[in-house]
Specification:
Blueprint: H1 3-18, E1 20-21, E2 40-41, H2 65-76, H3 106-110, E3 113-115, E4 118-120, H4 122-132, E5 139-142, E6 158-167, E7 174-182, H5 187-208, E8 212-213
Parallel strand pairs: 7-8
Antiparallel strand pairs: 1-2, 3-4, 5-6, 6-7
Helix pairs in contact: 2-5
Length: 214
Amino acid sequence: MSYADKVFVAMCRDILDNGTSTEGEKVRPKWEDGTYAYTIKKFGVVNRYDLKKEFPAITLRRTAVKSATNEMLWIWQKKSNNIHDLHSHIWDEWANEDGSIGKAYGYQMSVKHQYKEGMFDMVDRVLFDLKNNPYSRRIMTNIYTFADLHEMNLYPCAYSMTFNCTKNKETGKLVLNAILNQRSNDVLAANNWNVVQYAALVHMMAQVSDMEPG
C-alpha cells in the first residue's frame, strides 16, 4: 500500500473503534427514502502527508483526481460560485436556477480586501506574500464569512488554508507547507477527494512561487 493508503485505513479504523454514533441526533443528511443518514463521527482528526515523497492519492479505491482538481481550480483560479463554470455535477444539488451556490467558496475567494499594499483577494494575497514575505506567519485564507452564511446554499466544509515556508538546508530552496481546515468531512465519499485537490494546490502554489512542496 501507499503511505496515503495506510493513513486512510488507520483513520477509518480509529473512527470505527473510537468514534461516536450520531444515531438519535438531529442530522441534516437523509437517504433517498427520507430516513436520516446517521454516521460514526470523530472530532479533530489530523492527517499529515509529505508531498516531496508521494502524491497522496489512495490506491485502495478510485479517486477522481481530475474532477477533484477541477473543483479546486473552480474555487481558487476561476473564483466562481456558478456550476456552469464547473465540469462535474457535484454541486448541482446546491445550485439555484441560475447555477449559483450563493456567496460561497469561489465568491469568497473573489472578494477584494484592503491591505497597506493595496487591494487583494485572498488568493492573490497568498501569492503576493509567498513572493514578497515568505516567512510570514500570516499567509492564510478563510472563506467561513459569518456575515454571508445566510446567503450560502451550503456552509463551507473546507474553509481555511494556512501556508508556511521553511528552507531546505540541502537544496537551499524554500519549502511550502500548508494546513487545510475542514468543519466536517465525509470520510468515505470525500476524504481523499479533498486530500488530492489541496495537495495539487500546494504543488501549484509552490511551482509558481519557485518553491518545493512540503
